[in-house]
Specification:
One of its GO terms (cellular component) is membrane. By secondary structure, the chain is α/β, with parallel strands linked by helices. 51% of the residues lie in helices and 14% in strands. The protein is built from 11 helices and 7 strands.
Length: 263
Amino acid sequence: MRNFSNKRILLTGASSGIGKELAQALALRGANLILVARSTNKLLELKQTLEEAYAIDCAIYTVDLSKNEDWVKVLEEIKRKYPKIDALINNAGYGLFDQVEDVKTSDVEHMFQVNVFSLIESVKQLLPSFLNARRGHIINVASFAGKIATPKSSVYGATKHAVVGFSNALRLEVEQHGVYVTTVNLGPVRTNFFHIADPSGGYQQNVDRFMIEPSDVVRAIINSLFIRKREINLPRWMELGNRLYHLFPTLSERLLASQFNQK
């Protein structure tokens, strides 16, 4: 089991789903944590659990990432208190599945703020310390929705496409300075993501047999942390589908039309 006892890691979206399981896995391996989420009660409960079970320091910060001014203030406070941070895991994000003509402008703005702008802000704030130390790891959780377009996920897909593009450019800028950038592209994961994205439950039911477990994602991230790795792609069969899609996009859209319209 890898040991991170001398590392401090900032994790957003830490109170549930992949983030919560990732926090537990990192604490098990000795990492000191800075956990960010919207729910104070969930963060307090998680902090108590982790500090009682493992000999680590766990700091928590409650913030709504859709409010950029609040996020900037929290980041400035974190930097003052913890000048040495070894890794940033931008896990927070959400989606809403809807037709373009039905999506609300407010939802478009909210999704971009949480999924893209808050992620860029956290990188901008912490990157100088990584560059000065000539080490650090930035892990940005994206989605296959950012690589393969499907109906009813136009805005969500656009936000994740932005994360992929930002991460790829960032990698080129910082790799010669000892800083790693990894993008995590995921298919459907068995979390509460779909409670918001698809309240009807129809899509989740349709893809249930294809879903991956949060533990699979956590294991892949843990195994790649502080190692130069361009991407984590899960499930792996979707990476094959992604390669075929980019080689033969029109043919893929025709052949996979029924699967693309599962939402």
